[in-house]
Automatic annotation (TrEMBL), chains A, B:
Coiled coil segments of this chain: none
Pfam family for this entry, one: HxlR
Entry protein name: HTH-type transcriptional regulator
Organism: Methylorubrum suomiense
UniProt lineage: Bacteria, Pseudomonadati, Pseudomonadota, Alphaproteobacteria, Hyphomicrobiales
InterPro entries the UniProt entry points to: HTH_HxlR (IPR002577), WH-like_DNA-bd_sf (IPR036388), WH_DNA-bd_sf (IPR036390)
Length: 177, 177
């Protein structure tokens, strides 16, 4: 599937892989710590660590000999996932499903102690862009399915959600479920 | 588990749930379109749509009678996930695992046509904060495990990764694997 989001999902594997990356990015490195933090079984933990290593997100490094012991560290590619974790935490804090009195984690500017948040900016000028001005379009790496998704969505928007079935590009006309 | 990131993962369910939210946020609304886009089986698709609905991320709405047909729309809570998808796409574009000539999707400012990206800003002043100045700390919603994670990570950082096993809070001392 030609989709950058799907590539990231594939590299993470599943919920366990994502929780492990959260812990590794927080700074946990040892097997027992990861087990305690996630509550995963040994089988799940070993398997997911191997998978994250195979996918280039985690590096295993020996920190002790006789007996050999290893720690797990995020690679540069793994560290890119900080952005994802920050987004997840920010959304989860907004939802506050567990009705907590405040957020479990705070991202702060070490110079001011104030909270930081994710925002959309112009990629070049770094000026803030409000969400209302952001649209998504096909990039030059889009395949036929990605182009179809965007064209179909545009046709649905144009037809209006109450106007009944849309005939967009023929091929894409919905059939009965 | 007291963790906002885990709450979001729980609401999404799995990879299929996340891919469905991607499509719904791009603007696909019809069952057949979602099936074509994700390649999910009918069983998987119906199940995940029901789950996303139960978790308050998706609303099912009738758009036709005789026969009844439904469309699926992201709720306000579901729309919060745009931030997550934007982060995923941005990371996947950076990785470019498939060695594409360019990104499949582009997020653009509709006023300028230029690319937008996620950045960290001061939550109040909205001034840019560089990643190097961002730290994570326990918020007032942190439970004992979250506090332990952060303390343990700080102890590991302090001890340095080559200094052998760390005895942080006793209880947390790693045991042999």
């Amino acid at each position: 599937m030609v989709c950058s989001a799907a590539d990231v999902l594939g590299a993470l594997g599943d919920r366990w892989g994502t929780l492990l990356m959260r812990d590794l990015l927080l700074g946990l490195t040892r097997y027992e710590d990861l087990r305690r933090s996630t509550g995963a079984t040994n089988a799940t933990l070993s398997d997911r660590l191997r998978e994250l290593e195979a996918n280039g997100l985690v590096e295993r490094r020996r920190y002790q000999t006789r007996p050999d012991r290893y720690e797990y560290l995020p690679t540069p590619r793994g560290r890119d996932l900080k952005l994802l974790l920050t987004a997840m935490v920010q959304i989860g804090d907004t939802w506050n499903l567990a009705d907590r009195e405040g957020p479990p984690l705070r991202f702060v500017d070490t110079r001011t102690g104030r909270r930081v948040a994710l925002a959309l900016v112009d990629a070049e000028t770094r000026e803030l862009v409000s969400a209302g001005h952001v649209a998504v379009e096909a990039g030059c790496g889009a395949d036929a399915v990605m182009r179809w998704r965007l064209e179909r969505a545009a046709a649905l928007r144009k037809a209006g959600s109450d106007a009944g079935p849309v005939s967009a590009d023929g091929d894409a006309t919905p059939r009965a479920k």
